[in-house]
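Quick one: CDP-diacylglycerol--serine O-phosphatidyltransferase from Peribacillus loiseleuriae, structure tokens please.
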Amino acid sequence: MRFKKMIPNFVTLGNLYCGFLSIGFAANGQYSNAAILILIGMMLDSMDGRLARMLQADSALGKELDSLADIVTFGVAPSFLVYYTYFFHFGLLGLIVAGLFPLFGAFRLARFNISSTKSSMNYFIGVPITAAGGILALLTLFGGKLPNIITTVVFTALCFLMVSKIRIPSLKEIPLPKYGTIVTAFLGCSLFAIYKGTYQNFPYLIYIATPLYITYLGYRFVKSRKDSE
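--- reply ---
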């Protein structure tokens, strides 16, 4: 029973480890792999909270782990990715600017953690750091032909949107996991990459995480149908 209650925490730690690996891949010049690992982290992040509720394993420890994992995977890792792919052109100034992203993200997470339960169930205040980090990862993955100024504009906009007072509808009550649009795009791009024969360019973890996540999506869909009957 105790192990059962730890399962969501293991998923959260997997999310954190994806962030660490992403930083390592980015430092070694494997930028596509680094971006994909951030997206895999998004998949895990969308699962841990729901698993905790399904297994009745919600805990203060799990909530703290989730925030710590998010700041690494969706704050630090994307900022390093953007630095290594573009901001390095500006030397120390580029590193300083890239470091602003996790700062804004940390403030966003702290504000969310102390917000009321009622408001957090209905909407988010500001763009969630998970979505912001995922957008930067996708921009790096598919933005090779885009002007660099677009990366700068999107990066700056996301920093301020995370700490803004804009209300963004929460999708927590929808049967499918959070960030479904980004995850769906990720799965579609994975299949396209396999079709084009570029699968060897991706980390092997993608071929473990993707079928597991598809299975999870199927389970959530079947469960929601049964609950509605």
